[in-house]
Amino acid sequence: MSELLGYVLSGLVTGAVFAVMASGLTLSYAATGVFNFAHGAVGFLTALVYYELTAAFGWPTWAAAVAAVAVFAPGLGYALHRAMFRGLAQAGETAQIVGTIGLTIALPALGLWVIELSGGLLAAADATALPRGLGPYPPVTVEIGGVGLDSAQIMTFCLAALAAAGLWAFLRHTVYGLRMRASVDRRRLATLRGIDADASSALAWMLGSTLAGLAGVLAVPTLGLDATAFTVMLFVSATAAVFGRLTSIPVTFAAGLGLGVVQNLVAGYADFAENVTGLRTAVPVLLLFAGLVLLNRSRERVAGSASEDAPPPDHLAARPAWRRRAPWVAATVALLAWTFLADGYYAGIAAQGLVLALIFCSFVVVTGIGGMVNLAQASFAAMAALTCGWAFSSGLPLVAAILAGVLAATAAGVLVALPALRLGGRVLTLATLALALLADQVLFQIDAFSNGTIGWPLPALGFGFADTTDPRVRVVLLLALIGVIGLLVRNLERSASGRAILAVRSAPAAATTSGISAPRTKILLFALASMIAGLGGVLFATFKGSITATDLPAFAGFVWLAVVVLQGVRRIGGAVIAGIVAAAVPEILSSLDISAHVGAILFGTGGVILAKHPDGVLAQLADLRHRARAALARRHTPGGERPGGEQPPGERAPRPRPTVVRSPGEAPASVRSPGEAPASVRSPSDAPTSVRSPGKVPASVRSPGDAPAPKATGHVEAPVFALESVVAGYGEVTVLRGVDLVVWPGEVVALLGANGAGKSTACAVAAGDLPVTAGRVRLGGVDVTAWPAHRRARQGVLLAPEGRGVFPGLTVEENLRTWLTDPAPVYDRLPQLAARRTVAAGALSGGEQQLLTIAPALVRPPRVLVADEPSLGLAPLVVEQIFALFAELRDRGVALLLVEEKAAETLRVADRVAFMRLGRITWTGPRAEVDPDRLTAAYLGVS
Amino acid sequence: MRRQALMGLVVVAALVGCAAEQKAGGGASGAAGSDGVTATTIKVGGVLTKTSASGYSTKDAEIGARARFERANAEGGVNGRTIEFVGAEDDNQDAAKGDAAAKKLVQKDQVFAVVPVHAPNFGGAVFLEGAKVPWFGWATGPQWCGTTTGFGYNGCLAPKPGAGSQTWWGNQLADLAGGAQGKTVYVQTTDSSGSKYGGTTISQSFQAAGFKLVGVNSGLPAAAPPPDWLPYVNKIMRSDGGAAPDVVVSIIAGTKFNTGLYSALKKAGYKGILTDATSYDAAILKDPATAQALEGVVAAPMFEPFESTAPEVARLRADVEKVAPGTTLTQHLAIGYWSADIFLKVLEKTGKDLTRESFLRTANSGFTYENPGFGRIEYPKDHTEPNGCGALVKLVGGAFQVAENMKCFDNVPLK
């Protein structure tokens, strides 16, 4: 019994470290939507700083810990936020995953490189480095309940508990915590309440990094300065985070504690598992997989929301086929010529690059076309190679063995695809990660399969006249194979299956209702991709002459993915370049005598590039060239299509308008041929998350004649709020086509119009939620067009959005506090809310929610209140109450813009009325002048 | 993951056929013509794990080899040729990079032989064997064994079943403990096939010396040290019929693993002998807690300890001092030094007419060489089994002392 107690108690200590790390992971994911694979690397780097401070600078451990955890870690988090995470949050999932995986490689390498550069000034961080923990040193042992715990363990547990309590208090009881939770709950709404969601994200990253750093410093005495060990710890923590469904920090924390205990119990009692090598090591991975499949069925994206993954524009679409292919043909010829002229060594490197390229082609299929991120690709390659080696050694002819290997990988791919049917996005990625680790830790440890550490020998592939011992033969063979796969991929994209895949990718729900079988297409993709990876793996092994279980470790798959995505994962060309780069860069670095760490840093920092150009280097280059060409074309046609027209020629880089305003991750405009005048098009901003800094607004916004003076209606002072010739829309769809609207203080303007007239878009533009293509927004005479939503909100523009403007996950009290410092007056005014102050807003009735939306404005009246369909879905009695509140606000001098489809109630409070139709204001006038004819015209389009 | 490759360091393993049966596959496109030998020079370069994600590094082997080559050159070279040592490539403990490094040395730098090779996960074996390029180093992995070109300085440490397996560790320890009769031994490995295989050979070594084996546990996670040692320590403390064993052998590489295990054992009241193959490292003594955890540990180096009074060790010290003054002597340094030493001996025996072919013919037809520094080596016999020699050092009062000098024992067939 005391043994069991001992396992549980000391397991809790271990679990506390997992819990701290996992909490940071969950926090940053929940707050920003980016699952940070580099969380462990941040912990490692912080631990490294801690170690250097103690070992190289002789700081006391506590001071070093404070400096590392409370200064360095948050600083690193902030720097990463600025450099990467902010951009990644708006990039597609693939870019997010790859970006953070790149960091996992780059951060430790960066730290180790700095140490290397210091030339002995800093303490070496190799296996001889023995970082000490906090507290007494060496640790003192204390007897607790019959169990011996040492001071380091107690310290660890106390600090973890303190961190948990601190985190809880911060999130629950500070205004920053409230803002962060509000941003997590409804990011768009948070910005409309004046919360700078970007700042909240920065804070979340800083906190997350601090937690990772704390876990790192606590773990480093046991783990040592071993970056791999930290990555392993991240995987264990990810398990805890998955059990918390990546949203609940308390559950995550508890799961972390539980994992520590489970590991101890397995180590103590599961002797039956001894015969299966690796099984006990793999317990967290098994739990991770179980947790993913059982708890995390993806709540599928709704139709149309996948635009984040839209392909980049194909600037060469209009060119003839030969012109499009010419560069590739030329490159292939050059490569071949070089191969035959260079000596065997360089030809060998080219062959190595092309083998990798072949494996990389599988990423094009599964990620580039399928939009799924598979981290198990290296395991597929290893699986195929080992199967091939095993089959060959069992006496099968080589060709049959190769086939067996490829088939094995294909079968494994189908097996992996099965969970993929139910999982989507990051959850799928984590599941493939779990499978990759399982393969490494259990499957490849089976001696009968991998032949122990020696692996299987494989002969060269002969063709009668030549065999693959000659690298030139390999290059030719590989080029031919890659060509075949290129054709296969092209046909796949153009076939019915390809269209089905595209349909499933961009809108799973819509695809299903159209009769497209999502599972079938997913299985097809996975099977094809693993077949290609398998073929690559088998050739890798034959060319090398042998294959062992450690030749293609799971971690290699992560690096590969990073390299491919960096080049561009949508085309075979990207994969080929990535393969060459992966083989050539280490060679170039070593011939220049540059540290291998630099290579890792270079690969890793690709993530920073991805944050800005999610489609990779190839697409970026194409885009740059396209812009240059467009600029050139414009210069040659003076007075031609220059947006804005008034920029003097030669002013720096006039760029076509659509690209001017494209921020990373936004869907680019569709295929357009060069030379064609860029349509006045702008992508849908990922509205709530798009944070533009002032000044980034297109220079083309101008109004030469300046504000059209609104028809004076007896007002002496200036209007408090005005839309002037506003043009705005989503993607290629222009919704507002020159809207002019003004509101004076103490006035209710009703904006009426039929469904689809552009009313909600007008609201979004007013609140700064949607950028304008042209025109201006003024607040109290100040041009606020460039202001982001949260800044406008802080200056007094409050939007009560369509639906309910509440944070469903926050309590009534917390909802009020997002706008008010003291909600007490609201309770006096609206007793029904006072009674429910501790209830989550999501649990309120629709009417109560709408009251809650408007209530803060009563206490702290905004200058302008824009209410989008405030009466939607409410009982008549509640509607009356809401409109009474509007009237009260008007009397207090607030300018109100009420947007309604139903005219009756609105007309009762309105002072002036504007009718909207097809993106234009068709009529504005005092309420008195509204008659049934006008109403009919507004709604039915009869004029 | 990578750590399991590290386990190869300690004993390592292959169960089935060694590379002997491999057909030439690695691309034996060796540039004909120059094989690194001129009238006055012999070009040589090595492959080491200088850096790795786990922090494991064998970079000191380069200093050792250089020190030995410098002395040879200072003495006028071998048969009139001096050694042009181009340094060592880093394989990052990555098999594919090791393969690339071997190819670079042979095809681009055009070295005559690859010396020293000291990388636990070396991936260039198949290529070097195919290209008939000699390579010398620490043969911890099965890729060395059964080749005609891979020369382990103390033989092949990963013999196949049926081939000879060492007994020196058990015998030396029995000598130190005043006989093995009635004494019990417990072997701790990690949860990976390489480490498990090490458990088998070491158990056999101790049993051959007369110890009673009371447990072989391979429950330790392979990837990273367990955050909590309690379950493992509990098992050890009860293995001898409820009591603690007399000897605990740790087949785990990595100071963090060993110090963790030893601290936990001491915390639980263990008073017996602790022994492992990797703790003989002066660098880790700088840290007081590590020194405390390791106090009393009996480490088993496979060369004459630096604390020894043997003249060969004194010369090693002087050679190193000449090329890198102030260097701390380490296990890796000694391995590089002795690998180079054996390579030079074969060169000397081959004579003036030097080609790779003549070199390999000399080395593989009854070459024997004895040196108190590493014991004795016999090729081709030691292509398939270890040389059976080793020493013991003990950490007493924060400093290593020679417990048993280098001595060779007869191998027994591996079960």
TrEMBL record, chain A:
It comes from the Bacteria. Residues 682-692 have a biased composition (Polar residues). InterPro entries: AAA+_ATPase (IPR003593), ABC_transp_permease (IPR001851), ABC_transporter-like_ATP-bd (IPR003439), BCAA_Transport_ATP-bd_LivF (IPR052156), LivM-like (IPR043428), P-loop_NTPase (IPR027417). It holds the Pfam family ABC_tran. The chain crosses the membrane at residues 6-27, 34-53, 59-80, 101-125, 152-171, 202-221, 227-244, 251-270, 276-295, 325-341, 347-366, 398-420, 471-489, 523-543, 555-585. Keywords: Amino-acid transport, ATP-binding, Cell membrane, Membrane, Nucleotide-binding, Transmembrane, Transmembrane helix, Transport. It is found in: Cell membrane. It is a multi-pass membrane protein. Residues 721-943 form the ABC transporter domain. Residues 633-713 are annotated as: Disordered. One of its GO terms (molecular function) is ATP binding. Its main location: membrane. CDD domains: ABC_TM1139_LivF_branched, TM_PBP1_LivH_like, TM_PBP1_LivM_like. Belongs to the ABC transporter superfamily. This is ATP-binding cassette domain-containing protein. It comes from Sphaerisporangium corydalis.
TrEMBL record, chain B:
PROSITE patterns: PROKAR_LIPOPROTEIN (PS51257). Residues 1-19 form the signal peptide. The keyword Signal applies. SUPFAM superfamilies: Periplasmic binding protein-like I. Residues 41-398 form the Leucine-binding protein domain. It comes from the Bacteria. Keywords: Signal. Belongs to the leucine-binding protein family. This is ABC transporter substrate-binding protein. It comes from Sphaerisporangium corydalis.
